[in-house]
Amino acid sequence: MVASNKKIETAAPTNIVIFGVTGDLSKRKLMPALVRMLCCGLVHTDSKIIGVVNNRTEEVWINLVREGMQEFSPEIVEDESRWKKFLARLIMVPGDLGDETTYQRLAEALVELDGKKNAMFYCAIPPDWYGKVTSGLRKAGLANEDDGYRRLVIEKPFGHNLESARALNKELQSVFKEEQIYRIDHYLGKESVQNLLVYRFANSIMEPLWNRNYIDHIQISTAETLGIEYRAKYYERSGALRDMIQSHLMQMMTLVAMEPPVEFTADAVRDEKMKVLRAIRSIKPEEIKLHAVSAQYASGTVEGEAAKAYVSEEFVSPDSATETFAAVRFYIDNWRWEGVPFILWSGKRMKSKSSEVMIRFRKPPFNLFDSHASAPAANALVFRLQPESGVVLRLNAKKPGLTTDNEEMVMRAPYAADEGEVADAYEILMHDVLTGDGTLFSRADEVESSWQIVEPILDAWKNRVSVERYRAGTWDIPAMDELTKDCVGGWHKPTVHK
Ligand SMILES: NC(=O)c1ccc[n+]([C@@H]2O[C@H](COP(=O)([O-])OP(=O)(O)OC[C@H]3O[C@@H](n4cnc5c(N)ncnc54)[C@H](OP(=O)(O)O)[C@@H]3O)[C@@H](O)[C@H]2O)c1
What we know:
- By secondary structure, the chain is of the alpha/beta class.
- It has helices spanning about 25-40, 60-70, 75-80, 80-90, 100-115, 130-140, 160-175, 190-200, 230-255, 265-280, 290, 425-435, 445-460, 480-485; strands at about 15-20, 50-55, 90-95, 120-125, 150-155, 180-185, 215-225, 290-300, 300, 305, 325-330, 340-345, 355-360, 380-385, 390-400, 405-415, 470.
- The strands form 3 sheets. Strands 16-15-14-13-7-12-11-8-17 form a 9-stranded mixed β-sheet. The chain has a 6-stranded parallel β-sheet with strand order 3-2-1-4-5-6, sandwiched between helices.
- A hairpin with a 7-residue loop joins β15 and β16.
- Mean pLDDT is about 95; it is low at about 1-5.
- The structure holds NADP nicotinamide-adenine-dinucleotide phosphate.
- NADP nicotinamide-adenine-dinucleotide phosphate (NAP) binds near residues 22, 24, 54 and 156.
């Protein structure tokens, strides 16, 4: 269920232009999502998919698409008539992104298709190219909306610090109006993240509890068992703080902490998210050690397999101090959240894989049942995003028997009875772009504000020569216990829910 009051509609016919159509994101996510959207009527049958392809013939490109589909949507390739229908929608425009004639050719191709159609420009390309592409589109007259809408989609990272994020926003906004720009954060496209909003704002029992009077602290986390895979070159320049906390986790924090918006529209929601970001207490350089943790995986064993150290991964410098684990404790200085720690943490090569928002309530003020029982545990409400999305509520109940001893009762509600029913984040987000709904996308001011908040930490970590290590496949990060020592229950390791 999409957390908005909009009706699910077939988007108007659109020319879907993909820059970077031969890349990994297109292969794994965009093409399979578009195929499914076409099949179920979310994309209009008059829409075309235009791939801007460099150094390949049309035949080679189509073969690449087919191979990708075989891997990620085999049902399409194996059904000859569906594959042919899909194929009929594909159009190739050859050219290099750095060559202005590419955009002229694209403009000509669009006119030939029917210039009055809407266009979505999806940049599935290295971010260094965003500026070149937008200026190419402008020069070819493809940014103005005289004969249909023009929407630009970009993938994170949106800059690598405040200065570069500002420069990028300026560059994009010199060509497109802010409402034409869709900055994708695929985390916000997950149904389970949107479910968090529905839980908050469609259940009246939540609101009275959702504040400093009842909540001890909140932990928002992603733990991965994987290492950096093939992303070393990117990751060496990024690290966990940039890669996960500044983007996905801070976005989720704003959804957890924001006030109810006046309506479920893009700007009403994003205005409330911005208020949260503005209320985050800044961390002074001398306080960084108190509020932030970083560490890097050493060798170890993950899910029974030997895992090498980060510094031994291909393309990683042997003396790299890049963090593969990061945590930050934020405070939101407003009436609702004053004094409640928000602990955002993310790590690679952890003991188990999980992505969660855990709301830890305060302890009961007094233990009435103190004769035999241990003190009741503080309640927790956990929104699990992956794996097995759903909600877990931990309460205390009487143990069967003659005493009033208590034990924890764990109530689990899977998000969907069948995970196969859950829409893919890219389907949701691309449909939102096609229908002009920016609610789940980051606005320029949000992006800049979140960079501004983490910038002192980035600066402090920039020139360091060493970083703490943890064994791959463990939770062995003592600094996390220190960071959470005043939080009820301490560091919440996701395996606790299994
Ligand atoms: N992959 C993911 O799961 C993922 C997740 C989140 C965000 N992202 C973001 O999505 C974007 C794309 O990532 P990716 O993993 O798909 O990258 P990728 O596999 O390296 O693909 C890059 C694409 O850009 C094209 N390209 C690069 N330079 C070009 C040029 N001068 N002219 C024409 N085409 C050019 C490449 O074409 P060639 O094939 O000809 O080189 C390729 O199609 C990046 O911004 C990344 O940060 C990716």
